[in-house]
Amino acid sequence: MKIYADIQSGNCYKIKLLTSLLSIEHEWIEVDIMANETLSESFLKKNANGKIPLLELDDGRFLSESNAILNYLASGTSLVGDTSFAYAKIQQWQFFEQYSHEPFIAVARFIAKYLGLPEDKKAEYDAKQAGGHKALKVMAEQLQKTPYLVGDHLTTADISLYGYTHVANEGGFNLAQYPAIEQWISRIQSHPKYVGME
C-alpha cells in the first residue's frame, strides 16, 4: 500500500505512528502541501478533495480522511475496541478531534510553524488559543480518570488526538498546565514500536 502524506502534519503523522505500532508495510510518499502538490491534476484524480493523508491500497482503491484510514488499518485489533460501544466511544473522540481540537490547535500550529506567524495572521492565531485550551481541558478531565481516552489501553482515539496534541506547544499551547496530558504523552511514547515525527 502507499500513503501520500507530509510527516510534519499531525493528521499524516498519526498514520505513520499506527503503521509502526502495527508493523504495517507501506510505501510513504512525501507530498509538499506548501508547493500545492495536492492540487495537481494527478493527485486530484486520487482524491478530489485535494488533501492528505491519502491511502492507496494494492488493488487501486483509495481512502482519505485520517481517522477513517486509522480505523480501517486497525480493524480487527484491540486499537478499535472490543465492543460496539467501545468503538463508538473511539469515534466520539475522533469527531471531537476533528471538530473541537484540530481546528484550533492544528491551525495555530500551522500559522506558527508553516507560515512563520506573519503579522497578518497574528489575530487569527490569537483567536485559536481559547478553543485549543478548551479542548485540552476536556482531554485532561478524561485522562485524570483513565490512562487512555477510552479506558485502560491504547486505541485509535489516542492516536488521533496524539497527532497534534504532542506538538501543541508549536501552536503556542503550554502543556505544563495539563499534567494528565503530559503523562498520557509519555505513556504513548513508551509503547514498543513507537515512532516520532521525523
UniProtKB/TrEMBL annotation:
Query: Which terms does the record give in the GO molecular function aspect?
Result: transferase activity
Q: Does the keyword Cytoplasm apply?
A: no
What does the UniProt keyword field contain? Transferase
Can the keyword Transferase be found in this entry's annotation? yes
Q: Where is the GST C-terminal domain?
A: 83-198
All copies of the GST N-terminal domain together span: 1-81
Q: Which InterPro entries match?
A: Glutathione-S-Trfase_C-like (IPR010987), Glutathione-S-Trfase_C_sf (IPR036282), Glutathione_S-Trfase (IPR040079), Glutathione_S-Trfase_N (IPR004045), GST_C (IPR004046), Thioredoxin-like_sf (IPR036249)
**A Pfam family matched in the record:** GST_N
Q: Which family does it belong to?
A: Belongs to the GST superfamily.
Name assigned to this protein: Glutathione S-transferase domain-containing protein
Q: Where does this protein come from, organism-wise?
A: Colwellia psychrerythraea (Vibrio psychroerythus)
